Amino acid sequence: MLQRQPGAGSVLENDQIQRTLPNRPLKYYDIILGLFVAVLLISNVASTKILQLGVFTFDGGTLLFPLSYVLCNILTEVYGYRKARKVIWTGFFSAALMAVTLIGVGALQPAEGWEHQEAYEKILGLTPRIVFASLTAYFVGEFVNSFTLAKLKIFTGGRFLWMRTVGSTILGQGLDTAIFISIAFAGVLQLPLLVSVFFSNYIFKILFEIAATPVIYNVVGFLKRSEQVDVYDIDTDFNPFNLKES
Fold first, then answer.
1. Is pLDDT at 246 greater than 90 in this prediction?
2. Is residue 213 part of a domain?
3. What is the pLDDT of residues 162-175, one digit of tens each?
């Protein structure tokens, strides 16, 4: 049997392994879910602007989007993959609904006297290609991130939280960034610029995760103590489409 090792905010003895959540209300799960969805939607809107920050060139959404990975890591570490899967799907459908709404509103006839249709289309008129790229990259990246963290938690016996959060983010964000840029900009941007945008986005996101590590330790410790939960996904079905097991 896996021997649980003391980790950030451990609330169980070493010989106890919590495989599922207790059958009682969770204090903070819904709050984190709402914050996750807010971060995702705001990032999508902010990404319509390309900006320069020091040596980095990326879309504005990159400033906030890495926080979604931080929140997903916290969710998986404390509540387990099942609960993280529910949050990822909630974010996916919320982002899809926002994209469809913005495209639909842009396609409707503007009212007489409203002269900002062109500006609306330039800023919020998301093209189907960008929408598909964003949703695909998000889906793959977030699930790979959560899956990797959950598996590493079992493998390490709950130790080395910093290694697990950064390692899962390196893999998840790498796939997320590569998929989005490939689908959205391949054939549009020349290869040198495409490579530059990829590395600028990817390096910034990893540095964000590393910088957030002390915060992650504190939040994870607080949640585990407050909720009295610390789930290990030993018997979990990791199929992302299994929505019945939540």
1. no
2. yes
3. 999 999 999 999 99
